[in-house]
Amino acid sequence: MKREHRKLSELLEExxxxxxxxxxxHLDCQLILxxxxxxxxxxxxxxxxxxxxxxxxxxxxxLISRRQGGEPVAYILGHKEFWDLTLSVTKDTLIPRPETExxxxxxxxxxxxxxxxxxxxxxxxxxxxxxxxLERPTWHIVGVDINPRALKVAKKNGAGIANLDWLQxxxxxALNNDSIDLLVCNPPYIAMDDPYLDxxxxxxxxxxxxxxxxxxxxxxVILEAQHLVRSExxxxxxxxxxxxxxxxxRLMACGFDxxxxxxxxxNPRAVLAKKES
Length: 277
Ligand SMILES: C[S@@+](CC[C@H](N)C(=O)[O-])C[C@H]1O[C@@H](n2cnc3c(N)ncnc32)[C@H](O)[C@@H]1O
Known about the structure:
Elements: E1 6-7, H1 8-12, H2 25-37, H3 41-46, E2 51-52, H4 54-68, H5 73-77, E3 79-82, E4 85-88, H6 101-110, E5 117-121, H7 127-135, E6 140-145, H8 148-157, E7 164-168, E8 180-185, E9 190-191, H9 205-208, E10 209-210, H10 216-228, E11 229-238, H11 244-253, E12 256-262, E13 268-275
Helix pairs in contact: 2-4, 6-7
The structure holds S-adenosylmethionine.
């Protein structure tokens, strides 16, 4: 063995340096090492007694030091799994969360294949729009975002999907009134003084934070949905775990009939609301 060669099991011990930074230090370390070697995590686990050269060990150490600095694994790898997709993500896009799959699941459970115009407002990486477009080829999906850099990532993720379009707009400004069958939105909803934000410093704050105790954007979207969604059409909104009552109240005041939804952890997470005729 040459002096500079490193055993993979030895590099995997770097996981110890992520304790206190990550909730899953071993998994993070495996993912980053596998990525830096261009291998899968399964390969890595099966071959941890193999050696790599000094250059490969250096490349890994550069990546792991980013994780040590608090950068999320998804930004280091440049992708994140959502639904059954692997989506590109950059620092211009929120990292799609597993909780948001509730929105896709609810929509697929509730609406059949009949032709519909569905708008994903605040599409980010395009996660919701792309999952829906692939699951329901008969629907026309439009992903909207105010951030052109996020839209660029969404377009790349959705390249080649025929029933999908993208639009840059401040919420629904560029959309026609009474035109939408289903409006789905995961807006920024974290309050500016929420201590939870400290752990999310790498993600775009414009995708996370909203004024009015986190509710300003949720309320803007409800107000716009009043005009954009056709009579008896639907609005599906993700929100913070402590916001459901206020969201339902505002929806009722704006002519919607809300059904509150819980995520897999049993937390209030979204509301599906039907626009009354
Ligand atoms: C919480 S992220 C959701 C991203 C993606 N839909 C997801 O679930 O992973 C909110 C998104 O709304 C976008 N956004 C914020 N303000 C907006 C506005 N006024 N008009 C349109 N999009 C907006 C942000 O750029 C961001 O991509």
